[in-house]
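Sensor histidine kinase: structure, please.
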Amino acid sequence: MSVERPLWRALTGYRAITTVYAVALLVLAWGDYTDGGRPAVAAGYVAVLVGWTALTIRRTLGADRCTPAFLAGDLTIAVAGILLSPIADPADAVTPTLPSIWVAGSVLAFAVKAGWRWAALTSAVIGAANLATAGFGRATVHNVLLVWLASIAIGYVVEVARASERTLARALRIEAATRERERLARDIHDGVLQVLTMVRRRADRADPAAAELGRLAGEQEQALRRLIHGGPPPGEEPLPAPRAAPEAAPGPPHPEGAGEADLRALLARRASDRVTFSAPAGRVPLPAGAARELDAAVGAALDNVRHHAAGPDGAGGRAWILLEDEPGEVVVTVRDDGPGIAPGRLAAAEAEGRMGVSLSIRGRLRELGGTATWESVAGQGTEVELKVPKR
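Here you go.
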């Protein structure tokens, strides 16, 4: 909601209330106008004021309706009322002017619409009209300065609020673009990069055609990693965004519908002869989208185990998944028996464009409002703990 909208509504209410106040002042001072004054001038002006306010009451409901022509007309009505006051009351028996505090509404309209500079100019015009009719008395000068300072302050606050809204909108656009880029990078890492890596590693070096295919796959893999990590090279277009976000590792059908999924059933599919899965006996419900993303993060962690935990002789590479259903969160621990992660290796991998940890795991958990932590001891394997709040 724009910060200006409440100001416009308040200004609309102010104009309506001060119009009623001007009518009440005329009724209360009617005897002073008839005793040596010109009641027809006073009544005629107040009638015009009421009609103008009623006809333009919707003009101050938003900046798009508050046109320059309306602002000029509003200021003209205010100045005319001030200048007609001594004509309607030559004996100066009535203290306030005919429009009274209604004139502040026209100044505030300039402040909200155009900022503090126009507010200062408009309040100076109103002040000059008051000084021309009432003289340089203490009360008159006090009221003029009060309106001038208040209008400038409100105009300045409105300008600052508009600048803050523009900055916030720009930050939200950048955040949305960053999230979309991270999502695309996760999809590329979990799909295309895995296939290219497999082709590169399994290419038959004895076969020239297969060797060439492996070399090309390796080049494309490195190019994609650079693209994910640092953006497109100069002169190239970024990857286009898909029409819809693909689902990560869709789970099996579940009776609870599309709004909720059983995380236990999703993770149970990860069990194999080299992956042991342990979980509570009952269901572990989680919002369907969060459950799929958490399952995909576990899949990325298992991919790391398969690629990095197994030794040259094929030994090792076993993994254990532990699912815990806590009162306010779900905790999934993935542990392996590999050689562990050397200090600084995760940061180095991210710098090289290998985004399995930073995007496929940590990025997913961050978007779910959760956390991902790693504990690794040389020669004793690695443990990844994934925590996701239930709501």
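Notes: Residues 231-257 have pLDDT under 50 and may be disordered.
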